[in-house]
Automatic annotation (TrEMBL):
It comes from Sphingomonas suaedae. Belongs to the glycosyl hydrolase 130 family. The keyword Glycosyltransferase applies. It comes from the Bacteria. GO terms for molecular function: glycosyltransferase activity; hydrolase activity, acting on glycosyl bonds. Transmembrane segments: none annotated. This is Glycosidase. Keywords: Glycosidase, Glycosyltransferase, Hydrolase, Transferase.
């Protein structure tokens, strides 16, 4: 059993201090404050890097859907005729008749550093002055789902950068865990879940990746795996130049509740048993699917060797009671818990997740659970 609580919700965001306020006149609201990257700061407190999805209060005006976009001169609104789009996921829309599929977002996301107590049970300070917002055209439609790894005395943060140019992974670096500088694009393809290992393997940086594509080839009929998005691995001499490993990493196995897709969740931590990583698996259900958290152990010297893959029963599932006070804000029909951070706390791990794409959840899990 886990000890769970919501630590940060949409109601905790002060939109008067949003970076969008500097140039966007349209009224907005917080669609979600969720999917927090997690790390421990030098003084012992934790930092949750919260994804704030900011959406328009009037998304439709004069027969047009509107979307927010960053430019070097400030944030602007784009307009799309309603008869030219379709939507079955409240987070996105698609342009009709386009091949390949061309999508738009109903919100723009930026990253908000929220400092927590060392046990993760309360908020110490919200650092609006250190918010991470789009700063280049390759992230003009937002930054999503930070993951933070402490490696060799420096903090490395990856985020998914979204734009009409590309859908890529951006890297940020910090020398104090709180102030982050953008190092640019590190994976130039659609990849939503890049997680750097918290330590080197064979003298090289390692990362989990999850490349996406328009088509996946079917495995042999007798394969223990199912086709689709999977977790791969890559290595780098400097965190800027990455080579995918030839061997596969974690794949969705037949007969489990990860039959739609899977992807990295937490940066792998080195334990006496191997590299521990928590990941999400998605079960087919309506247009979105049910997201749950599972875990795996990878060999410390060769992480392509999967020592354990616990995908029979989820480690974490959505807890409706947590978001019941926010029921009027809920917009996803499917159960979703999306784990994005982990910190060592002695006999327990502190795990950070997005709950229902709405709020930040902190779970305390005993280490004995992973024995």
């Amino acid at each position: 059993m886990s000890d769970d609580r919501l630590i940060f919700t949409p109601d905790d965001v002060d939109l008067s201090r949003s970076p969008l306020r500097r140039s966007l006149d349209a009224e907005t609201y917080v669609l979600g404050a969720f999917n927090p990257g997690l790390t421990r700061l030098p003084g012992g407190n934790l930092l949750a890097m919260v994804r704030v999805a900011e959406a328009l209060c009037e998304p439709v005006v004069d027969g047009h859907a509107r979307a927010i976009r960053w430019t070097p001169d400030g944030y602007v609104l784009d307009r799309y005729p309603l008869d030219a789009i379709e939507m079955d996921d409240p987070r996105t829309f698609r342009l009709r008749g386009r091949a390949p599929v061309q999508a738009g977002l109903t919100s723009l996301s930026w990253l908000l550093p929220v400092e927590l107590t060392g046990d993760g049970r309360s908020v110490v300070k919200v650092h609006y002055d250190k918010a991470v917002e789009p700063s280049a055209s390759f992230m003009a439609l937002g930054l999503e789902d930070a993951r933070i790894s402490l490696i060799g005395g420096a903090w490395y943060m990856t985020a998914c950068a979204v734009s009409d140019e590309r859908h890529c992974s951006a890297l940020y670096r910090s020398v104090n865990g709180l102030d982050y500088r953008c190092e640019g694009i590190v994976l130039d393809h659609q990849n939503k879940d890049m997680c750097l290992f918290e330590g080197k393997v064979g003298g090289k940086f390692m990362a989990l990746t999850r490349p996406l594509g328009e088509i996946y080839f079917a495995p042999p009929p007798d394969s223990p795996f199912v086709g689709g998005p999977a977790i791969h691995l890559a290595q780098s001499p400097d965190t800027l130049h990455w080579k995918p490993l030839d061997s596969p990493g974690l794949r969705a196995r037949a007969g489990t509740s990860t039959n739609l897709r899977m992807g990295g969740g937490t940066p792998p931590l080195l334990t006496p048993q191997g590299w521990l990583t928590l990941y999400h698996g998605v079960e087919r259900r309506d247009a979105i699917g049910a997201y749950r958290t599972f875990w795996a152990l990878l060999d410390r010297d060769d992480p392509t060797r999967v020592l354990r893959q616990e995908d029979d029963a989820p480690l974490l599932e959505e807890k409706p009671a947590l978001t019941e006070p926010l029921a009027d804000r809920r917009y996803l029909p499917s159960p979703v818990v999306f784990t994005t951070g982990i910190a060592d706390a002695g006999d327990t791990y502190i795990v950070a997740s997005g709950e229902s794409d709405l709020a930040c959840r902190i779970s305390h899990l005993p280490k004995a659970r992973f024995a």
